[in-house]
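From the thread on structure requests for the teaching lab: each student submitted one protein with a one-line request. Submission from student K.M.:

"Model Fatty acyl-CoA reductase from Oryza sativa subsp. indica, tokens only."
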Amino acid sequence: MGIEKSYVAGEQAGLLLEKPFQIGEALRQGYTLDVEAEVQLVDRIKSKLRIKSSIHNKLEKTTMKKLGLKRAMHFGWPNTYVLTKAMGEMLLRQLGGDLPVVIVRPSIITSTFQDPMPGWIEETRWIYSSVLYTTALLLH
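Reply posted by the TA:
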């Protein structure tokens, strides 16, 4: 039982079964998430932004953040982080074929947002050693 199913379940409460997302599944009832269509939407908007603006970097970044949040909320996720995690799970199931795939949903986020750089990890913490150990067991 959990409140957030390690983030991918959004803000649902109550008993949440640990089941992988099916391709097209959205948290919002009656909606279907087409991952390929979402990628194409982003590509189209980025292309338009690059044509319209010579200083596209800042405009593109702001527009993409807003679009990501809007699309995440449209399908029932509270932000782009959890939406893209769910999309990744869907793609693994769809494209993985007969590969034995294990989806690990750690409920701890430990790297930095920005300083000194995005994703920076200052030291080794217990979570990394447990992930490495689990990965080593799965690969053997």
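TA comment: Residues 1-97 form one domain. DSSP finds four helices and no strands in the chain.
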